[in-house]
């Protein structure tokens, strides 16, 4: 699979930034990911990310680390953080930027150590792909967590993207799928990714999935754009 994200962050790191990543989704939306945004510092981050970084403690795993901005911030605060991503380009750039502990792996293939904090930022729960994969994904995350550990993740309820009727309900296509399931492709400088599944979870759906899998789920902060930060812990 073309490492679209990796190529874009490598270009930026090497001073060859000329364009952004284009994304195309099954919601008929075309969008861009501005590459400089992947290199943002703490003050440029949305409040859900800032809150997560303040709550992170102990031994930390930054899942889907991208260019390493979150890991770097935590490392600079003296915390023990490992950055994991399945993009070779992202891991190369994270190392070049100074992240000391990196792992090139799909998170579902990783089981080397356990942690006090798992971070899944920039809608990291999206890595689960679909609602039907959510149970296995949460169980795998729980297996990486120490007894008193926490998972900090942000997501968005994308219900606002659907048409609203007069009585406040939403017109959601009846295709048998959860409305937060989206298929994306990414494009950058002639490179195009294979289509991949990504999920945006409304908070109630996440909470119910956590309870079904023996985990507590707590809403830590709500953002300005239907987004939120949740903390997941083992049930006591």
From TrEMBL:
The keyword Oxidoreductase does not apply. Keywords: Methyltransferase, S-adenosyl-L-methionine, Transferase. GO terms for molecular function: methyltransferase activity. One of its GO terms (biological process) is methylation. The keyword DNA repair does not apply. It holds the Pfam family Methyltransf_25. Residues 60-149 form the Methyltransferase domain. Gene3D superfamilies: Vaccinia Virus protein VP39 (3.40.50.150). This is Class I SAM-dependent methyltransferase. It comes from Flagellimonas pelagia.
